[in-house]
Amino acid sequence: MISPTLTWIVGAFKKKKGFKQVPPYPHSQAFTSIERTTETYRLNSNGLIEELAIDVPRQDWDINKGKVSDYPCISLRQNAFNYILRTEKFDKNDWVKFGGAVTSNKHTAPDGSQNADVFEVNGSVHSLKYIEQDVDIKVNNTKAYFSVWVRDGGGVVGNPGTGFFTLSIWDNVNSNDLTYVTYDIINGVVVDSDGNGPKPENIMIKEYLNKWFRVGFMCDVPNGSSGDYKMRLYAAVNNPQTASFPTYLQATNIGQQIQYWGANNTKTQYALPYIHSDSAFEEVGEDVFYSDSLTDYINSPTGLWFIHVKMASLENFLKNSSANISLSSGNTNDSITFNFKSSNPNFSMNINVDGISQAFFQGDLDFSNEIKLAVYYKQNYVELFYNGKSIYTDSTFDTFASMVLNKITNDDGGGSDKFEEGDIYQYRFYDVRTLQGAKIKQLQKQLTQ
């Protein structure tokens, strides 16, 4: 990765406050304000699921193949419910067992505590082994995302796992699997997916520490009564390459084990940060992010402004139809603004210099995936990269000259200076005056891939 001078990045947090990370904090006394009325969870820098208190910003680290990322994101969410009970207590009666038994608090869980549950297969071979819970009527006739952490085996010699796991939404009326996905939980890949109803969407398998995998998918749950559909966790899944579905779900060895932790069901298009629940459905309040004036001057005539976001909303709805993220001089006369909208075109980049505006519009940003944008600007030139590709250039751009861009604004379109529709992984501003044009393009491409 090319490393020019990194002037500003959001990164350091305390209760209700967020500080810039480069140059070393607390060089500036200016701050952003992050507020939330409930507790919540995040993935911390050690790769563990961690509970956060009220008003503590959700500074999340991502994880890929068991390796924690080098930088956090500011994870901003609207309020959301988890419609699964006993998310860590699979031994309770809310989870109905078939063909096996659950032992609670057996092994180290993704949160680092000794509270992972083990399901051990018993009874006869060549039969189904699973646990399940009713899908609440509140998520019938709507799209919902189902997820759970699983780990192969029980860590006991002589009681291995099978290396595979199937998550299913069971149609209790028609006695078949409405939607299912089968995962290889050794190598971290999807090996089969289908069903007798809606196909699974946004399939996820993500490896955490100690060979834990979070798996999940979005399912369009048809209309029905509570109990018509069930979230089912199959426990004795054999190699799908040796048999067809559902034959490979039948147990071939008694004593096989699998570990479970952290089941969630939310009305979102992808898995939210973990939401814990016990005997009642749990709600997590929205994160409200406000910005204050920043006193650190960014070199304004030439620079590269990078933003990495992901929208959480299920139907691409942005509050008041738009959400703006901008770098500005404190007013709209001098600014670079990224505008995300629910209607077409769903994205625009607006550059204002001395009150004169230039804009670029695009109608096909995919809000179901991460969005990485990097705009490079100088006198008579501006170029925007989106997810690794150059999508806009302008050779008539009039630069900011001596204007100072020193304010980051997050505006939901309603004038209340907040952005609350997903994860803001990073803001970065680079001073690229020492780089040649080809190196700048390379930096834009690397940042946005």
Write a concise keyword list for the protein shown above:
single chain; 449 residues; mainly beta; eleven-stranded antiparallel beta sheet; six-stranded antiparallel beta sheet; 1 helix; 3% helix; 47% strand; disordered N terminus
Question: Could you characterize what this model shows?
Answer:
The chain has 449 residues and is mainly β. 3% of the residues lie in helices and 47% in strands. The chain has one helix and 32 strands. The strands form six sheets. Strands 1, 2, 3, 6, 7, 22, 23, 28, 29, 30 and 32 form an eleven-stranded antiparallel β-sheet that branches. The chain has a six-stranded antiparallel β-sheet with strand order 9-12-19-14-15-16, with no helix packed on it. The N terminus is likely disordered.
Question: How are the secondary structure elements laid out?
Answer:
Blueprint lengths: L4 E10 L2 E4 L11 E4 L4 E4 L5 E4 L6 E6 L2 E10 L3 E3 L13 E3 L1 E8 L8 E6 L8 E5 L7 E11 L11 E8 L4 E9 L4 E6 L6 E7 L5 E9 L7 E6 L22 E10 L15 E3 L3 E4 L11 E9 L10 E7 L6 E7 L5 E7 L2 E7 L8 E8 L2 E6 L2 E6 L12 E5 L10 E10 L5 H12 L1
Antiparallel strand pairs: 1-2, 1-32, 2-3, 3-22, 4-5, 6-7, 7-32, 8-21, 9-12, 10-11, 11-20, 12-19, 13-18, 13-20, 14-15, 14-19, 15-16, 17-18, 23-28, 23-32, 24-25, 24-31, 25-26, 26-27, 28-29, 29-30
